[in-house]
Amino acid sequence: MLFDEATLRKLTRLTLIANQVRAGRMKGERRSSRKGASLEFADYRDYSPGDDLRRLDWKAYGRLERAFLKLFEEEEDLAVHILLDASGSMDWGEGDLHKFNYALRITGALGAIALAEGDQLSVRLLRGQGADPLESLGPLRGSGNTLRLLRYLEGLRPAGETDLSAALRRVAADRPRPGLVFLISDLLSPSSFTDGLSAFLRRGSEAAVIQVLAPDELDPPLAGDLRLLDVETGAFQEVSLDSGARRLYRQRLEAWQAELQASAVKYRARWATLSTAEPWDQVVQASLWKAGMVT
Predict the structure, then answer these.
(1) Average pLDDT taken over every residue of the chain
(2) For residue 73, how many other CB atoms are within 10 A of its CB?
């Protein structure tokens, strides 16, 4: 299991932040930011496993022997799309420092929060030139699907190359319902992620970008004459590393990350860079909170 029940209970107390909640096809638990909303009764919906039993209309259940939840004018659901980079470059690190396993936990945490809120959740894997339609989950709704989400994630493995821009455009071409889009990736791609992400934003979605890197990518513990292998393409590169070359690497890494963050901000996407050395559960409640992704 990606995380235990105690951690899950902590996560489900959180809420994903959307600056402007998108009107849903079904009513949910989320509070709308629309002016003029109220807590006046508006509608019913069928009960889903995991829903708050305090919201059940017991009188209707007694008459019809069918479970309905009361809904109010202020409540509507949010479409949450998690786009997970499953390319070979994510297959890096040992144990708890492994990038893909870390990204799976972040995906599971965000997904569990969305399901607990009654939002509509979809997960898509990005690899190759797009997203394999067989490597997707959802849309799901209701906390009763949390175990299904976690089991799905546990079976995933990273492999192959990914052109992030092409992959994002291909997913956007399926015209998913506008909502909140999370891109979780190391962003190690020959193309910029922003062109693909803008395809979602043009249709009214909001975006959050979570970059996941391993500690030895942030500060490589290497020295001497080396032959490096690109884990996605299989290409080799001969390099010589001394203290000056490592210093230059760190400078260029910082410049690259600053450029990526500036691109995200340009498209009004929230941004967070995570090191797998940071405890992932603390990251969700601290770093993603600071980045304005959860509350």
Answers:
(1) 81
(2) 16
Q: Rounded to the nearest 5 degrees, what angle is found at the Cα of 72, between the Cα atoms of 120 and 26?
A: 25
Q: Residues 40, 73: contact at Cβ < 8 Å?
A: yes
Helices H / strands E in the chain, number of each: 10, 10
Could you tell me the pTM of the whole model? 0.78
Q: Which domains does the chain have, with CATH numbers?
A: 41-72 (no CATH), 77-219+268-290 (3.40.50.410)
DSSP reduced 3-state for 158: coil
223-236: pLDDT as tens digits: 555 555 455 555 65
| CA pair distance 127, 168, nearest whole angstrom | 10
Q: Are 184 and 82 in contact (CB under 8 A)?
A: yes
Distances (CA, A) of 205 to 20, 22, 200, 262: 9, 8, 6, 19
pLDDT tens, residue by residue, 102-125? 999 999 999 999 999 889 999 999
Give the separation between CA 34 and CA 2, rounded to whole angstroms: 36
Burial of 56 (0-12, 13-18, 19+ CB in 10 A): middle
Dist CA 117 CA 137 (whole Å): 18
